[in-house]
């Protein structure tokens, strides 16, 4: 038996974050999201794993090797080349090896123990299975059409609204069924969809069953706010208090926190867990870190800076008098003194964000900014809710940003 992790996607809906970091390396509670599918495979005792790569493949390979060393599993990489869908990705693996396989999409946050337990019976008894999760709005997902325990087909993004069982992107497939990926045809989206293998298998007398997991154990990472949601779910499960860094006796730490080695927490800083703080991060003095915040390695959060329910990636600096609320700040960003990120509209309505040219409902009343890697703001910059600032962009002092800023753009006056 082998494991297959699909990690080739370019994450267009997550831009500008994915302009400088692959989708599967987006952080969830301090770990790249691909860690969680790999951990599931490790818990199932699968020693041979194939990771399908394409976009920014060298970076993915480097990081996955570190993870698999930690989990003690062997990994081989398959270059998908042109990413023509999930079915095409699996076909690339089948061209190299054919065996019973656990297949997991690489952009899923998973509660590893729960998911591995849900799969164990199928793996032991060797029957085809799809993992499902009950969601409140099935129109956003692939819907499992079921008859008892049997899955009849998967309908991508059905027109109906309301509750339904969504495809969680996790499968166990016997080798003789897996071979049917060679019979897949392009979907209306112009891709080879792995989900079509279920209908093909049924036509040949092979069945798929489904098992369910809780929504609190699963989150796909499609949009920026999904990343915030996954981070919150993961941190809620942080049932420990582990402090390995240097914490001033004048700092206050409440609740469950993880503070990594060589991190420094300076005096008068107040941290409310659950919070993750990475290696060599420097927090304070007089900083306020609020619940559900992840701060990665070598980040500097300085004097009178408040961070609430946000993700701040590696080597980013917010040194003075800054507010970061419900936001995602990519790596190597510098926020000038007095930069404020608004996260609440005056009318308290749901915040929408421009995604691939369309205004998309985030389903969040509070949502701040998404700032791409290596961007800079000057002093006293204000950023409105739901705004995206592209990577390598520069916002001049005193500017108020009301709409998205493209990558590699210099903004000298109010951006309306």
Automatic annotation (TrEMBL):
The alphabetized UniProt keywords are: Acyltransferase, Multifunctional enzyme, Nucleotidyltransferase, Transferase
Q: Which residues form the Mannose-1-phosphate guanyltransferase C-terminal domain?
A: 271-344
Instruction: Report whether Nucleotidyltransferase shows up as a keyword of the record.
Output: yes
Please name the pathway. Answer: Nucleotide-sugar biosynthesis; UDP-N-acetyl-alpha-D-glucosamine biosynthesis; N-acetyl-alpha-D-glucosamine 1-phosphate from alpha-D-glucosamine 6-phosphate (route II): step 2/2; Nucleotide-sugar biosynthesis; UDP-N-acetyl-alpha-D-glucosamine biosynthesis; UDP-N-acetyl-alpha-D-glucosamine from N-acetyl-alpha-D-glucosamine 1-phosphate: step 1/1
CDD domains, per database record: LbH_G1P_TT_C_like, NTP_transferase
Instruction: Give start and end of each Nucleotidyl transferase domain.
Output: 3-235
- Family membership, please give it: In the N-terminal section; belongs to the N-acetylglucosamine-1-phosphate uridyltransferase family.
Task: Please state what the protein is called.
Answer: Sugar phosphate nucleotidyltransferase
């Amino acid at each position: 038996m082998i494991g297959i992790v699909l990690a080739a996607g370019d994450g267009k809906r997550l831009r500008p974050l994915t302009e400088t970091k692959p989708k599967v390396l987006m952080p969830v509670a301090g770990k790249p999201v691909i860690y969680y599918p790999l951990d599931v495979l490790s818990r199932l005792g699968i020693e041979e794993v194939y990771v399908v790569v394409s976009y920014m493949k060298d970076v993915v390979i480097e990081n996955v090797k570190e993870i698999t060393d930690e989990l003690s599993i062997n990994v081989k990489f398959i270059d998908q080349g042109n990413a023509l869908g999930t079915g095409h990705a699996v076909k690339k693996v089948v061209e190299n090896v054919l065996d019973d396989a656990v297949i997991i999409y690489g952009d899923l946050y998973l509660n590893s123990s729960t998911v591995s337990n849900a799969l164990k019976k199928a793996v032991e008894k060797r029957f085809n299975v799809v993992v499902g999760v009950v969601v409140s709005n099935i129109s956003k997902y692939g819907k499992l059409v079921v008859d008892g325990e049997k899955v009849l087909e998967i309908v991508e993004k059905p027109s109906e609204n309301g509750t339904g069982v969504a495809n969680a992107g996790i499968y166990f497939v016997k080798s003789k069924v897996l071979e049917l990926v060679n019979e897949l045809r392009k979907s209306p989206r112009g891709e080879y969809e792995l989900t079509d293998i279920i209908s093909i298998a049924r036509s040949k007398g092979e069945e798929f069953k489904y098992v369910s997991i809780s929504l609190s154990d699963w989150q796909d990472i499609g949009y920026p706010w999904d990343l915030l949601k996954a981070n919150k779910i993961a941190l809620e499960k942080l049932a420990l208090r582990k402090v390995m860094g240097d914490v001033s006796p004048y700092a206050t730490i409440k609740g469950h926190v993880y503070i990594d080695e060589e991190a420094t927490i300076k005096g008068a800083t107040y941290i409310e867990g659950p919070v993750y703080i990475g290696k060599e991060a420097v927090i304070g003095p007089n900083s306020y870190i609020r619940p559900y915040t992840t701060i990665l390695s070598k980040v500097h959060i300085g004097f009178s800076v408040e961070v609430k329910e946000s993700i701040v990636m590696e080597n980013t600096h917010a040194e003075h008098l800054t507010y970061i609320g419900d936001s995602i700040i990519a790596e190597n960003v510098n926020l000038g003194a007095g930069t404020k990120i608004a996260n609440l509209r005056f009318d308290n309505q749901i915040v929408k964000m421009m995604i691939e040219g369309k205004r998309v409902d985030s389903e969040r009343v509070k949502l701040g900014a998404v700032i791409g890697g290596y961007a800079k703001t000057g002093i006293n910059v204000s950023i409105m809710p739901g705004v995206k600032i592209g990577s390598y962009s520069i916002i001049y002092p005193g500017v108020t940003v009301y709409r998205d800023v493209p990558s590699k753009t210099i903004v000298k006056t109010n951006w309306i």
